[in-house]
Specification:
242 residues, 8-stranded mixed sheet, alpha/beta, 8 strands, globular
Length: 242
């Protein structure tokens, strides 16, 4: 079995080294299971040295996506993927060996077409802990995959057309919804792993004011179509603050 690990990266020179180090360590679980793997970083038109850092820290390939959009970066990375399964990991997240083990167990069971993980934010601040708890509850109950960690059978990913490039945020929720009919057809499920939560960055809580964050959340809830399909409205992902 071959797994392709795809990392979308826009100006991620600061955090990419620790992400790649964590992935290299977690890949030990793949070796035990005699799986092969590759790491593909998609440089999403970065203006820093993301590409060089990716290669210096063990990425097998770096591909380039000139249009700055997370869904496009993930799709471009997936186009280069040779694996039967694709794992999407954000450049500010650090998976553990135990999380990879849980992922492998889920895949090998044959019951699941895709899956995600609960998350732990790398901040002791109360708002980070509350935010993580809220998202993890929603994720588990709704079987909604967080974009920071999504594993999916490559054939299924391609059959539904990958990530929708209409969206500049929440494209992983759209992917989840579009994947469900295929999962039912194949009598499989989407799973949210809980035993070893993904460690991911809480940097947006420090880079943006509470009013900026809440404004985006409220607009996403009450004006989702116009908000999530607008790069300007989703500026928390695209204005380059790092």
């Amino acid at each position: 079995m071959h797994l392709s690990i795809v990392i979308p990266a826009f100006n991620e020179a600061k955090l990419l080294p620790s992400t790649l180090a964590a992935i290299h360590q977690a890949r030990g679980a793949l070796k035990v299971a005699t799986w092969s793997s590759e790491i593909i970083v998609c440089d999403n038109n970065s203006t820093d040295n993301t590409r060089a850092i990716a290669l210096d820290h063990g990425a097998d390939r770096v591909v380039f996506e000139p249009i700055n959009q997370i869904s496009r970066a993930r799709n471009t990375g997936a186009l280069a993927a040779a694996g039967r399964w694709i794992l999407f990991i954000d450049a500010d997240s650090q998976p553990s060996h135990q999380l990879f083990e849980a992922m492998l167990k889920a895949i090998q069971s044959g019951r699941f077409i895709a899956g995600g993980s609960t998350v732990t934010l790398d901040s002791a601040e109360r708002r980070a802990q509350i935010g993580g708890l809220i998202w993890n509850t929603i994720s588990r109950l709704g079987r909604l995959m967080a974009g920071s960690f999504i594993f999916i059978e490559a054939a299924a990913f391609r059959e539904i057309g990958g990530f929708s490039e209409r969206f500049f945020a929440a494209e992983e929720l759209d992917l989840t919804h579009r994947l469900r009919p295929l999962a039912r057809q194949q009598q499989r499920q989407i799973v949210i792993l809980t035993s070893a939560p993904l460690l991911t960055s809480a940097r947006k809580l420090h880079l943006y004011t509470p009013s900026e964050i809440w404004r985006l959340i409220l607009h996403s809830v009450f004006r989702s179509k116009t908000t999530l399909t607008s790069k300007e409205a989703c500026h928390l992902w695209y204005d380059g603050r790092r």
